Amino acid sequence: MPVEAIIAIQDRLDTTHDLAAVYQAGWDAFELIQDVAARCAEPGSSSFATWMTVMGPACAGRDALGIAPSLPQAHGHPAILESIEAATEDDLADELATLAAALGSRLLRAAQSAADPADRRACQLAADAAEEIRELLVRGD
Q1: pLDDT tens across 34-62, in order?
Q2: CB distance 69 to 123 below 8 Å
Q3: Which fold has domain 4-137?
């Protein structure tokens, strides 16, 4: 079962062309990834270390966008996590890996079009964090 909040953020990333809107969607994506990772990080579980490790780049990506000059002052829409409990950890990892890939790609495109060097740097740092999350969550076949 796909998580609606993940899909909603992916849709925003796919449809926005405004740098501030990309930043806002990116901020929300990193917040969502951090929230899901925190909920899935059950002490003693086999995936505890992975989920705990994901929280670091999620915070780093969010913080990189947080200092970008073009980020709107009002950050974040609270993530809606109702369907998290219904999804398996593997499904969540797959969905978040896909979101992280889309996020990284969109941030790299935003970096190329940003006029302000500080915005370009923020996009690159956040894209690097998204790629790190993707690498941590991607499941080998």
Answers
A1: 999 998 898 888 889 999 999 999 999 99
A2: no
A3: Ferritin (1.20.1260)
